[in-house]
Batch of 2 targets.
Target 1
Amino acid sequence: MKKKLLSVLLCTAMISTLLVGCGSKTEEAAPAEAATEEAAPAEEAAPAEAATEEAAPAEAAATDMSGKTIAILVKSAGNPYNEKEAAGFQEVVEAAGATCIIKAPESATAEAQITMINELVAQKVDAIAIAGNDADALQPALTAAMNAGIKVCSVDSAVNKDSRMVHVNQAGIDLIGQTLVNAVADIVGEGGGQFAILSATSQATNQNAWIAAMEAELEKDSRGLELVKIAYGDDEFQKSVDETEALLKNYPDLKAICAPTTVGIMAAGKVLQDKGSACKLTGLGLPSEMADYIGADKSCPYMFLWNPIDIGRLAGYTAMALVGGQITGAEGESFTAGTLGDYTIVAAADGGTELILGPPFEFNPENIEEWKTVY
Ligand code: RAM
């Protein structure tokens, strides 16, 4: 209780100075809050999250990791989301005295990641955090890594339960699905209509899980919405532009596009706005990339995301807790993720285990100016 009060006070004080972190608090995340999933870690994390902007790195380094090498392997290069995730990871890993390796394949494929995993095994790193480009295809490479004594966690986009020790998830899957369907229904308005999804790659575990959650939500209550097409822009800007144009051409009555990828939503935002299209947009986007497209008279009335730097930080702390032996990845284990606060490992929907950073946060015309400078 005391902690909560402190959290509110700290946040109130910080909002006035536009400090980072409070915005991803559950207090402000109204649409997400309405759903039932556990939001506790984010709430607890809020003051600490803000503090990480200023805190001395040494404070984060509860365990001395000097002599250790901790790697992150993101989905692909050239995606600012992945860069921010890797930056958060690097910050906490280096603050703990470890060497950080960042690997990013040119395109978001499993093949490229397998090559890089093998390289990291040959380098005898101590831990690998991976944003998987495929749930199953990386299993032989990651199993070999774990057999070699390397600690493996996934982050952002899970690998299957046998390929990892724990997954570091940005937000609950069902909660993201519900939040996105609610947003599509809201922007399409009364009576519903056709909408399409513009995703990343067809193999991306995270997008596929969110889409399945959206479909389950629509099955419960369609709200007059008809999902006419799932298109894949492969987290490449030009491909996402082309796919958006194809959607508009093939579905002239399309009322909305939902893009659960930061690359896709930015591409769609530009296409819809340049064309002055009546088709509206929502999804998951970086405020820094979407500021020009957010607004009642723009292509995207509002969208959602979490702090991509914090998901990297949480993955860094998790990888180090695995290396340090504070956790093994089993359900029920708790540890302190540096300045992000305390986290408990829970059961994941795929039968493995996970940690959840917190609920998604809404970016809209009222707060986009503030957030576009943050991430
Ligand atoms: C893209 C990537 C990433 C996802 C975000 C929302 O940048 O696909 O994995 O989490 O979008």
Target 2
Amino acid sequence: MAIKRIGVLTGGGDCPGLNPTIRAIVRKALKENIPVTGIRNGWKGLIEKDTVRLDLNSVSGILPKGGTILGTSRTNPYKEKGDLEKTKKNLSALKLDALIAIGGDDTLGAASKLFKEGLKIVGVPKTIDNDLSCTDFTFGFDTAVNIATEAIDRLHTTAESHHRIMVVEIMGRHAGWIATYAGLAGGADILLIPEIPIDMNEVCDIIKTRHERGKDFSIVVVAEGAKLKDRELVLKTEKKDAFGNVLLGGIGHTIGKELGERTGFETRVTVLGHIQRGGTPTAFDRVLATRFGVRAVELVLNGEFGQMVALKGNEIVSVPLEAAVGTLKTVDMRLYEIAKIFFG
Ligand code: F6P
């Protein structure tokens, strides 16, 4: 069947690189004389039939802009009764022959299910967390790593002046990718990630040994999803989002308090939070997002639905959506072993 109109949506947490992807999809589709409809606020926009026409003007100047011009939400079309039917009905009422869903595990998980129900969908992976399977990198990650690295560099100078321990809490959900890359790039003295339960005795020993060798300041990088051995995950709230995700945050303060008390060294805590998700994408993320967007349109034109674009090495490939979702991509332990060489 010839594709006469494509829809595009961005779902889940925003990240730098979404706008370059939207721009690439629109520019490539228009080159093929296929109009594009933007769906506002992820799956919510499809449920509510909230759309916007995307033309050359609407994507002009958005390449360096963070966030998403389409807006986003964490609405799950499978959660509320009746939403699934509305999603399907509106897709055909809007005369969308194909849909490109740009999202992380939750948005693409829904896309994968909808594809199995007969909808013509292609996925584009995005997340600062870099925790999506079947792709080496997602856009947004490189930008977040650069922001976190700059923050660690800045914490270094003040830590050194005041002879303090600086604990920095970094996003990434249940995977320690941002923390590991930023920790390596920023020269963290200890790196605590969700993949390895934290032993506070070990952490205190490393810091004490470091101070004994004359270094009277330390940088402790902790991923928000890191967990102390034999203790519960630290959460911001008991509430969960529509996809059942917990809201992480607070482990930095737990670690900072305990470290300060047990080592006797003055300690301060910085939580980087959403700063890691905002602002302009790096050149790497702009290029990756652009390549993903163009390939997503090509998949639509070739009728390769149920696929997600992905990066393997330096090649843009496509993988089944089903294979990409549901399995967390955790940190490569070979990388963590390298970071460990610099502990203490
Ligand atoms: O998935 C991206 C992410 O920024 C995570 O790193 C973080 O745990 C979460 O989203 C924060 O979610 P929210 O934007 O709902 O506070």
